[in-house]
Amino acid sequence: MSTEIRTFIIPDANAEQAQANLSDFLRTVEIQRIDTAYAVDGWRVLVLYGDLKRKEESQQIEAAIAAALNGWRDRIAAQEGVARDIILPDDLVQEIARFAPTTEHELTIIVGGRDLPVPLQGGEIVQVVRSTLDVLID
């Protein structure tokens, strides 16, 4: 999630509306940090935050990719007569869903960073990710 910044001024005079605006805003974001400083005639409030709507959208995309990958690995595991974790471990499914690689090179970077061997079905994995993203974007 990217960090965004917004500033607020809470004047000494008639501070109620400014405080209400700040409170309303804070209820809609994921706060990462708040800094305050007093300047002439009022407080300055700096809010570093993440957008909750974007976070929710990202979580929905990750969940959809993970579900698609789980369905794919269940089918492959059944065909090969092995446990689905042998095809693709659970934690790697989550990592792939998180980063949504759309090329085998991207998949290699994600998997390689965890000191795991690249799955033999790398092309199929990125195709599942691409197909899922295509469905979500349409």
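Second entry:
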Amino acid sequence: MKKVLTVFIILCGFLTGCALSPQQIDVSPKVSVTRQDRHFRGELHVNVMDNRSSPSLGSRGGVYSKTNKIVTDADTTLSIQSSVELALRQMGFTITDAESAPTLTVYLDRLTYHAPGVAYITKVDLSAQVRVVVVSQGKKFDGNYESKLSERVLAAPSDDKNKALVNQVLSDALTRAFSDQELLTYLETIPQH
């Protein structure tokens, strides 16, 4: 009986005949900033806007793809804002609530998860796109940043693996933004306080 149960569990891992539950992802990206020979000072007011039409990223795939959606949690914008503010502090900026200060807004334009195939899942494809808009002294910077990730898998990823993949692709897009030399050059013009 134990052998039959073990074989069944293994088959469920490889085939998508076993139902995959819906999943809510706790978004917690990490923005990496490298040491720069630049001098960033001044105050910034930070906003994050979720421009997606839905919190859904897609489905976990398989034959039950209509019922196993992956969605982001309600704190997505707050989590992104916290990560962005930490990165800016590490760069040397002071974060302020004063709306009269120069403003940096991050727009989450896309965050997707796709598991192609119906009979079984061999890979998952993810993408993220963010836009960063900075307004200071009547001037504006606008940059778009995208990250894509394809992961080969032997079975449908676990909840923990999906969370790691979603946060990785979002972290990569945000890190690309704060590695953009044009954005960094613009941020150097922020008035010092």
